[in-house]
Amino acid sequence: MRRLDPWLLLSVLAISACAYLAQGSTARALAAPGFAHRQLVWLAVGVALLLLVSFADYRVLARFSPLLYVVSIAVLLALFAIAPLRGGTRAWIAVGSYTVQPSEFARVVTILGVAALADEYQQSRLNFAAVWRITAVVAAPALLVLLQPDLGMALTFVPILLAALWLGGLRWRAWIALVLGGAVFVAAAWLWFLKPYQRERVLTFADPQRAPYSSGYQQRQSKIAVGSGEITGKGLHSGTQSQLRFLPAQYTDFIFAVWAEETGFVGAALLLAAYALLVMRIFVVALAARDRVGAVFAGCAGFGMSTAILINMGMVTGIAPTTGITLPLLSYGGSSVLATCITLGIVQSIWRLRFANV
Predict the structure, then answer these.
(1) Is residue 310 within 8 Å of residue 19, measured between CB atoms?
(2) Which residue, 54, 199, 204, 209, has most beta carbons within 10 Å?
């Protein structure tokens, strides 16, 4: 335990405590106490899993990444045949009374696969073949998730690719080509792929008064909740937006709004500090890693997590469109909690073995 990063563990425990308190509030509002109890169980199992994985050798996991990657792709393909339609997507597998979202674990495997692939190229800059191989490794699961369809989850694969290419030393000319290609892709997606309700979310973000009682309702109520918390908040279980059910998706996408309303600026700032500490320590691990596998894995994990945090909080406060990206560890969901903890366990393994001689 002495060789683990205590600050990373402390930040995880602090966020977990906030998650339990926030989910306790939503459970009371929805008259579903099982939400808070399940979240507590998942957090406890997640922390135990984090500690277990941290004592594994991340280099051994990287060697098995091709096999894990093939299995994850096979599971994502199988979802189209075996997963029930839930909320308009085929993203979950039922296991008894629980549901598992394989895409959460596929993202961890993808980061591991990208790190292992980047380690094959020892030169300071990735060549053309390496760039395309890394892009393909990230694009395959992202495309399968997009076809479920789950746009929010698919978008979480993009930071992994960008971080891997940046850490690999992609040349500036290639970045220009990547930006232009991304712009073309976004335009094509807007014209031919995005569903009407997804386009409406973007248009409502650009013009908040466009549809305040339909596509803009969630974000409108979220901003009211955050603002009404003021300095010290209304108190736990006392937030009017959450307790009176004005705030939709309060236990998943908009859980930060519940926390901000009930604990105010003080509570929101403390939670942000815990997230900032967590992300900072992940990047410190990336800098301290003894090899490219560790550096790329921690770098991609840190960039992916920080992007999810910023987008979710931006969505809740109205400075980013609604995308369906959840807040790591705080939003309700066992698959998300366990996948995040596995990722952090591998980061801890990288830190633990940074001075290893074998």
Answers:
(1) no
(2) 54
